[in-house]
Design goal:
The strands form 2 sheets. The chain has a 6-stranded mixed beta sheet, with helices on both faces. A 3-stranded antiparallel beta sheet has the order 1-9-8. Helix 3 links the parallel strand 5 and strand 6. The radius of gyration is 16 Å and the shape is globular. The chain contains 4 helices and 9 strands. Helix content is 24%, strand content 35%. It is an alpha/beta fold. The two termini are 16 Å apart.
Length: 182
């Protein structure tokens, strides 16, 4: 797998350091309001599962984890804009402080839908922690309270991000060579 990577963008050590920083920020922001019920972190499967697991361990408050599966990628590389919920959360988030742990904010179409969908369940607060944010000209306007890294508009894999279900287990984030996905 490593030979398919053109360039490493973020190393394993850089990722661990940044996730710890985000965890500390979340702990500080919610220490007074989370109470005994703690936070609810919701991961969108499959890409964000690794990020959420590491982030939950970095937060020094009670954290309940839940998962959703949604589909919006028609051809596997670009969002179709049509979002379907394949697996919903099982946690009642009404009155709870909720953080969506997202792997990458690309077009933002899926996340924009997800924010509306979860807000309809009346959480006390709803914020986004995205591991990566691509800066693209056509990105939906989404306020992310916590951002791991800004990244270039390249095809990236690793640390949960995949191409055709491969490369998720790379401990770093890298740019996939174009001849692999073309």
């Amino acid at each position: 797998m490593h030979e398919d990577i053109a360039q490493v963008l973020f190393t394993e050590d850089e990722i661990a350091k940044r996730v710890d920083e985000i965890g500390a920020a979340i702990t500080g922001d919610y220490a007074e309001v989370a109470g005994n019920r703690g936070l609810v972190m919701i991961s969108v499967l499959r890409g964000a599962a690794i990020f959420m697991a590491d982030l939950a361990r970095a937060v020094r408050l009670p954290v309940e984890m839940d998962y959703m599966a949604i589909s919006s990628y028609g051809d596997g590389s670009k969002s179709s804009g049509v979002v379907r919920v394949l697996k919903d959360i099982s946690t009642d988030i009404a009155g709870r402080h909720v953080i969506i742990a997202e792997d990458i904010l690309d077009t933002g179409l899926t996340l924009k839908y997800l924010l509306r969908y979860l807000a309809s369940r009346n959480p006390a607060s709803l914020e986004v922690a995205t591991f990566l944010r691509k800066r693209t000209s056509d990105q939906a306007e989404i306020a992310c309270k916590y951002i791991g890294f800004e990244c270039p508009d390249e095809f990236i894999v690793g640390y949960g991000l995949d191409y055709a279900e491969r490369y998720r287990n790379l401990p770093y984030v890298g740019v996939l060579k174009a001849d692999v996905y073309r």
